[in-house]
Amino acid sequence: MDDGDLPLPAAPGSDSQQAALNYSTLASAVASANGPLPDPGISSTETLLRNIQGLLKVAADNARQQERQINYEKGTNSNMVYLLSLAQYYIYLAATHKS
């Protein structure tokens, strides 16, 4: 299983944001990334390191998703500011050009 197979956390502000931050969700993602059963030849230290690595991958995916959401919201806000400015301009034109 590669990084692309891990579930992506929810975007900030969405209804399922709590699920993205839920540790059991992270743990299940790590378990699925590391395989169903631990290899009996692997030490507990190696298992711990693999689990930490899996958690870091999930955290990195979460950070990337949050960054995408922030950039999307910035773009949406910029568009809204532009539209409001345009509306104000047209209102001004309408008010100053009355006959």
Automatic annotation (TrEMBL):
GO cellular component: nucleus; transcription regulator complex
GO molecular function: DNA-binding transcription factor activity, RNA polymerase II-specific; RNA polymerase II cis-regulatory region sequence-specific DNA binding
InterPro entries in the record: Dachshund_domain
Protein name according to UniProt: Uncharacterized protein
